């Protein structure tokens, strides 16, 4: 498959996966950090009071809305990382289209990693482990994903851009370490858009 075709197919699969990392349910926003540190509980409570509907009804509306909204916003990630790779390799004089292709591959790798992680780690832990799903488990699982993403990026950057070992490692480390923080801001952007703009 071409990168964009593969990206679209994987994203269709992703939105049927329980626990989609982009389209988080309302429960996550009002239960876990770092979301609650932004005052999400109060925002949701105020919204429910103004809407004059039950919390369950609002949760259903929110969850449906974030699924559709996240499908639109996910393409921003490709453009964003295309620009990042362009800036890292600005002196290579590669056409911007090549950076878009690589960004598509990167997002495909992340999407595939998310799908595998959900079915091989998260769901088995949730249904078969004697321990409850917790912030600690989420942190450990996120760290594991970052390490895998670091390894993938290092190999992919070195091959695609034909760059040095050190530069490939620097870029891979920079992106994998900041990816989760950018994802969190992306999730909050979706949250604010749905709560305040509907």
Structural class: mainly alpha
How many structural domains? 1
Overall mean pLDDT: 85
First-to-last CA distance: 36 Å
The major beta sheet can be summarized as: none
**Principal-axes shape call:** globular
Number of strand elements: 0
Compute the CA-based radius of gyration: 18 Å
What's the tally of helices? 7
Low-confidence stretches: none
- Strand-residue proportion: under 5%
Keyword list:
mainly alpha, globular
Describe the model.
With 198 residues, the protein is mainly alpha-helical. It has one domain. α6 packs across α7. The mean pLDDT is 85.
What is this structure, in a nutshell?
With 198 residues, the protein is mainly α. The protein has 7 helices and no strands. It is 78% helix and 0% strand.
Describe the SSE topology.
Layout: H1 3-14, H2 26-29, H3 40-51, H4 55-88, H5 96-128, H6 135-161, H7 165-197
Helix pairs in contact: 1-5, 4-5, 4-7, 5-6, 6-7
């Amino acid at each position: 498959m071409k990168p964009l075709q593969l990206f679209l197919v994987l994203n269709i699969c992703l939105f049927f996966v329980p626990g989609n990392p982009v389209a988080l349910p309302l429960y996550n926003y009002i239960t876990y950090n770092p979301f609650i540190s932004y005052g999400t509980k109060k925002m949701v409570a105020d919204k429910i009071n103004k809407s004059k509907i039950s919390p369950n009804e609002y949760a259903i509306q929110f969850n449906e809305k974030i699924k559709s909204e996240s499908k639109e916003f996910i393409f921003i990630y490709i453009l964003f990382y295309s620009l990042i790779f362009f800036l890292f390799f600005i002196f290579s004089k590669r056409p911007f289209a090549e950076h878009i292709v690589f960004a598509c591959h990167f997002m495909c790798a992340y999407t595939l990693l998310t799908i595998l992680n959900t079915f091989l780690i998260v769901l088995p832990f949730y249904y078969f482990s004697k321990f409850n799903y917790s912030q600690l488990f989420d942190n450990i699982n996120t760290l594991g994903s970052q390490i895998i993403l670091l390894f993938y990026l290092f190999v992919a950057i070195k091959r695609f851009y034909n760059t040095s070992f050190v530069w490939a490692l620097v870029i891979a480390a920079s992106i994998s370490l900041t990816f989760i923080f950018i994802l969190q801001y992306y999730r909050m952007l979706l949250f604010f858009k749905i709560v305040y703009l509907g």
